[in-house]
Amino acid sequence: MDFSLTPEQEEFKRQVRDFIEEHLSAELRAEVEREQYSIGPLGKKFVRLMGQQGWLGIGWPKEYGGQGRGAIEQWLFLEAMDLENLPTGGLTLSSAGPTLMRVGSEELKREYLPKILSGEIEFAIGYTEPNAGSDLASLQTRATRDGDSYVINGQKIYTSAAHHATHIWLLARTDPQAPKHRGLSIFIVPIDAAGVTIRPLRTMGSERSNEVFFEEVRIPAGNLVGEENQGWYYVAMALDFERLIPHSRTRRQLQNLVDYAKQTMVDGRPLSKHPQVRLALARLAVEVETVRLFSLRSVWMLECGKTPNVEASVLKIFISELSQHIAVAAQDIMGPYAGLRAQDPLAPIEGRLERLYRGFPMYKFAGGTNEVMRNIIAQRGLGMPRG
Ligand SMILES: Cc1cc2nc3c(=O)[nH]c(=O)nc-3n(C[C@H](O)[C@H](O)[C@H](O)COP(=O)(O)OP(=O)(O)OC[C@H]3O[C@@H](n4cnc5c(N)ncnc54)[C@H](O)[C@@H]3O)c2cc1C
């Protein structure tokens, strides 16, 4: 198998690298470190800059203002950005935007697509509810047609980007009489609409997510995406676009641990000379490389017009479990210091791997749980019956 890139792809990779080097300031680096999966003011500015320079639309068709490039280029872009923990437009660009392109009305497309590409509009994904996560179709949030409007009532949870997004990409029930998958619709709800309340929800790893409450929220009927009661199929389509899963954070996390082992002296010699530490780090390095190659294989399938459905589930499990392996290895290698938080001056590598240790369980939930992913692998990959 030949993994080498074409000269054009090599050139593209160099351009991405140059762009990052030019614009990744020490302040932005500090902010992304602080914010992790949130976006601060500098991160927002950076997204706008990417928008202005055309970096947000690498894979978008030219007719919608994108560059019309292939999956490999998108992957190269994501890999480089994720290595630095930089924002990339998230699911607005990779999932909601492409769905809107296919099923949205001309008015919605005209209004939203250019602003998504310029980084002005960001969606928070409003699917999950307190009693509807893996079993998403049980959701209760209601959208009721009233003349030229829909009126929304209900609650979402884990609406991660709601505190910095401009709109919510909302899945709500429009027909309570229909079978549960058939009565759902997608709406675009401005985050500043009257009746929307956002409450912070801190995860174990200190990341901010949110609860969002909708009380008599009135939006124009034109904000319905596609046809009424087709929301379930549009969500399936949106999830199908989420096949490029950033993987480089595992390399970044491992690098932290490697740096620590090289810099830390124990009994007069660096930890990196300790056989067990070397063995543990080498094992993790094999996993990091495996993830990268498997990710590349999935993206190659996309490039060939195939849907790496099972592969995306494998990757999601592998990446989240690898973060766990790195966090656990850090605890072993750093000993009692491993538990010190960032604000403690004695915290190794600014407490990053302590935070990872608290935070890795969320990777196993966010984007669909690993058990649900395993069900997909069993069913679609191994041809087993539904669980
Ligand atoms: C950090 C974070 C960010 C998130 N961001 C967003 C977001 O922006 N927007 C959004 O809409 N959602 C978001 N989510 C929600 C996420 O998609 C859900 O957490 C996930 O789908 C699981 O739902 P749940 O939390 O209700 O768990 P449940 O579905 O209640 O699952 C509980 C446990 O039961 C297991 N389980 C459930 N069903 C099955 C089954 N059929 N077979 C085997 N095991 C099963 C699960 O694997 C899990 O271990 C986020 C979650 C997290 C943790």
Task: Put the structure in a nutshell.
This protein is an alpha+beta fold. The chain is 47% helix and 15% strand.
What is the terminal-to-terminal distance? 36 Å
The third-level CATH topology of the largest domain is: Butyryl-CoA Dehydrogenase, subunit A, domain 3
> Could you name the ranges where pLDDT drops below 50 across 5 or more consecutive residues?
none
Provide the β-strand percentage band: 5-15%
How many whole angstroms does the radius of gyration measure? 22 Å
Percent of residues in helices: 40-55%
Determine the mean pLDDT.
95
Give the spatial strand order of the biggest sheet. Answer: 1-4-5-8
CATH homologous superfamily of the largest domain - what is it? Butyryl-CoA Dehydrogenase, subunit A, domain 3
Give the overall silhouette: globular
Helical stretch count? Answer: 12
What number of structural domains do the residues give?
3
Structural class, by secondary structure, is alpha+beta
CATH architect. name of the largest domain? Up-down Bundle
Topology:
Layout: H1 7-23, H2 26-35, H3 41-52, H4 71-83, H5 90-103, H6 106-117, E1 123-126, E2 142-146, E3 149-157, E4 167-173, E5 184-190, E6 196-202, E7 208-220, E8 224-225, H7 231-240, H8 249-263, E9 265-266, E10 269-270, H9 275-303, H10 309-334, H11 352-363, H12 370-381
Parallel strand pairs: 1-4
Antiparallel strand pairs: 2-3, 3-7, 4-5, 5-8, 6-7, 9-10
Helix pairs in contact: 1-4, 5-6, 5-7, 8-9, 8-10, 9-10, 10-11, 10-12
Walk me through what this model shows.
- The protein is of the alpha+beta class and 387 residues long.
- It folds into three domains: 7-88, Acyl-CoA dehydrogenase/oxidase, N-terminal domain (Butyryl-Coa Dehydrogenase, subunit A, domain 1), CATH 1.10.540; 123-230, Butyryl-CoA Dehydrogenase, subunit A, domain 2 (Beta Barrel); 249-381, Up-down Bundle (Butyryl-CoA Dehydrogenase, subunit A, domain 3), CATH 1.20.140.10.
- The protein has twelve helices and ten strands.
- It has a four-stranded mixed sheet. Strands 2-3-7-6 form a four-stranded antiparallel sheet, with no helix packed on it. Strands 9-10 form a two-stranded antiparallel ribbon.
- A hairpin with a 2-residue loop joins strand 2 (142-146) and strand 3.
- The two termini are 36 Å apart.
- It binds flavin-adenine dinucleotide.
- Flavin-adenine dinucleotide (FAD) binds at residues 125-128, 133-134, 158-160, 203, 207, 209, 362, 365-366, 368-369, 371-372, 375, 387.
